[in-house]
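Example record

One chain of 284 residues, shown exactly as stored in the release files.
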Amino acid sequence: MNLEKTGLVLEGGGLRGVFTSGVLQFLMEKDIYFPYVIGVSMGACNAANYISKQVERNKRVNIEFVNDQRYLSYRRLLLKGELFGMDFIFDTIPNRLVPFDFDTFYNSNQQNWTVVTDCISGQPLYYENKEVGEDYLHILQASASLPFIAKPVHYRGKILMDGGLSDSVPVYKSIEHGNKKNVVILTRPFGYRKSPSNIYKLAGFRFPHYKGLQYCLKNRWRVYNETMEALEKLEKSGNILVIRPETDLALKRTERNKKALYRGYDLGYKTMKDQYEKLLEFLG
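Predicted C-alpha cells for this chain:
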C-alpha cells in the first residue's frame, strides 16, 4: 500500500457525518492512516478523532450525547441563538467527559487541515493544526458553526463560520497541497444536488455587515453542485476514489433519533468494508 502524496477529504453535513465516522472506524481498524487529512465542519470533527487514533470516540460523542440538552437544545436556540451547546461540545466533552487525546493528536506526523469561512470576504480559510496549536478547538468550533443555529467565532481579527459555506468538499485544496491521489468521503449519494435557497435574504437582516457570508449563502447551492460535477469527472480520471452512501441516509443535519444515527454509522462502516479491496487497488 502506497499512501505517499495521498489525501483524505472529509465532507461535513452535520449529524449525517456519522456515516463518515463509521468509514473512519473501519480504516483505523485496518491501521490505514493517510498522511494528509482535510475536513469541513463535522468532517473536521471526524478528522480530529482519526488523527488522535481514538477508534470509537466519534460514535460516543456524536450519538450518545445527542439527546442531552447540553449538546442540542431548541430552547437554547430561542434564548441564546445556539442550537448546539458549543462550550459543552468543544470544552466539557473533550476535556472531561470523553477525553480527547491531545498528545497523540499534536504529535502525529499526519497533516490535518480545517476549513472555515471568512464572514467578511466570503472566502475559505485553511488552518493546519500545528499552526494554530492550542487554538485548534477554537478553529474546529468555527468550522462547525452554521449561520442561524450558531454564533460566529472571532479569531485573530477575523470573523469565522462553517467551512462548508465556501468550500464544502476541499479536494482542490488537497490537490494544491501536492496530493496526486485523493480519497473523498461524502455523506450524500451519487447524483445529489442542492436546490437554490432564499435563506441568504434572512442573512441580510441577521448579519447585515457580513457581506461575504451573505454571498456564500446565496451561491452555496451553485458552488456545491459545481463541485459535485467536478468530482464525478475526476472519479473517471482514476485519481480520486469517492466513498459515499448508495442511497440517501434519511438523516437530518440535526438528527436526534439514536437508532437512525447508529444505522448511519453502521452503514458507513459496511460501505467502507465493501469498498476495501477497491481502496487497496486504488492506493496501489
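Notes: The radius of gyration is 18 Å.
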